[in-house]
């Protein structure tokens, strides 16, 4: 039994970065630790439900319900807001933890101030990664080609100069790429099956603990209609949901399929009226309790975000992956490579293509077998309990080092 400690968790106000950590936090609180969670007010209630103490701070990032266009379209559009947010957040967090320094820092990969604070306080820092991590060769294969053109621009060079200056002001000499992409210790909250080049990941740094999902009962309930022979869930997550044309294609694909029932999550930026007249076997919501629906569904049409992908795998649900941005394209390829999904890019996702893929997937015993194999492998990764065990091991090692 590890003696109770003060553990501080840091994240950003985005569903895909907060949700994966919540069950780990709940478990640490249940084990008697005092856990503080630094998060913008929008997620304060959800975090407080875990038993953690909320340390609120104000973010400049577009919120999870912001129009997707607020995030821009280029690599620099995507990364600059996180650096700007980190710079303005750090003084808030320094003040919030003044006289209340933790014994260990946990952080989502987007929380740059957490690593700065851990360095300042001289305590162990553990990253919680909700998506894929770097492998040996990642820089040469992915990062360098991706940054080649942006680094030729004045804007790209200015971004790195600002990042380097901020780190140096805080006593950190690492290159920004090392600082953001190479933690000293990381727990990976996705199944290893979703990790590209998993055989080249340094497992002295990264430990795959898989899905940490919990029962999600607080998110609400959903019941499969009595007459539904097959249920399809369509969800593009929380950020990239402004796709009325795609949703209309889904209604056309499944609305006329005998015995099928369609659950369509459209987010907050599409008016249901834009979808036209809906058949009786189609229900439309701005949000649904996704995991609850998936446990009763026969098909998942997903944007292949890390959270949705692993929920599809954990519930052994065949998937049609329609990636929208960032890591979703790689996740879609991984799911297809596992033999449990079909990838359709948005422009290819016509009603006919969706219907054809759906019927092939749900009637294929080989897909079902592969899903069962992945599901069994995920169960062995340990999930929430193993994540908490490993965090406590870091605490114990730190205490031993201090007393040696």
């Amino acid at each position: 039994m590890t003696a109770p400690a003060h553990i501080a968790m840091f994240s950003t106000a985005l569903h895909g970065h907060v949700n994966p950590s919540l069950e780990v936090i709940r478990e640490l609180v249940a084990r008697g630790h005092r856990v503080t969670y630094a998060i913008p007010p929008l997620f304060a209630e959800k975090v407080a439900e875990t038993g953690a103490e909320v340390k609120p701070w104000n973010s400049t990032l577009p919120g999870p319900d912001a129009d997707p266009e607020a995030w821009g379209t280029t690599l620099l559009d995507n990364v600059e807001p996180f650096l700007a947010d980190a710079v303005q957040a750090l003084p808030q967090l320094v003040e919030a933890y003044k006289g209340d320094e933790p014994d260990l820092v946990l952080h989502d990969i987007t929380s740059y101030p957490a690593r700065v604070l851990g360095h300042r306080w001289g305590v162990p820092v553990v990253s919680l990664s909700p998506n894929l991590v770097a492998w040996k060769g990642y820089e040469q294969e992915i990062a360098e080609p991706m940054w080649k053109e942006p680094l030729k621009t004045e804007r790209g060079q200015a971004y790195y100069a600002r990042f380097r200056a901020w780190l140096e002001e805080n006593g950190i000499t690492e290159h920004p790429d090392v600082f953001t992409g190479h933690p000293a210790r990381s727990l990976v909250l996705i199944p290893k099956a979703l990790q590209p080049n998993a055989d080249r990941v340094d497992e002295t740094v990264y430990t795959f603990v898989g899905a940490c999902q919990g029962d999600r009962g607080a998110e609400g309930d959903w019941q499969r209609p009595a007459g539904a022979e097959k249920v399809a869930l369509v969800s593009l997550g929380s950020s990239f949901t402004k796709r009325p044309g795609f949703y209309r294609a889904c209604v056309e694909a499944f609305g006329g399929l005998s015995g099928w029932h369609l659950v369509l999550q459209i987010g907050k930026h599409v008016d249901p009226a834009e979808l036209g007249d809906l058949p009786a076997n189609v229900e439309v919501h701005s949000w649904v309790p996704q995991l609850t629906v998936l446990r009763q569904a026969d098909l998942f049409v997903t944007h292949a975000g890390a959270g949705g992908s692993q929920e599809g795998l954990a519930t052994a649900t065949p998937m049609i992956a329609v990636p929208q941005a960032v890591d979703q394209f790689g996740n879609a390829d991984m799911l297809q490579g596992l033999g449990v999904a079909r990838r359709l890019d948005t422009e290819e996702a016509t009603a006919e293509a969706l219907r054809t893929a759906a019927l092939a997937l749900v009637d294929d015993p080989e897909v079902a077998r592969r899903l069962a194999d992945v599901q069994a492998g995920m169960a062995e990764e340990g999930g929430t309990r193993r994540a908490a065990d490993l965090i406590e091991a870091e605490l114990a090692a730190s205490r031993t080092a201090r007393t040696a």
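The chain is about 40% helix and 15% strand. The mean pLDDT is 92.
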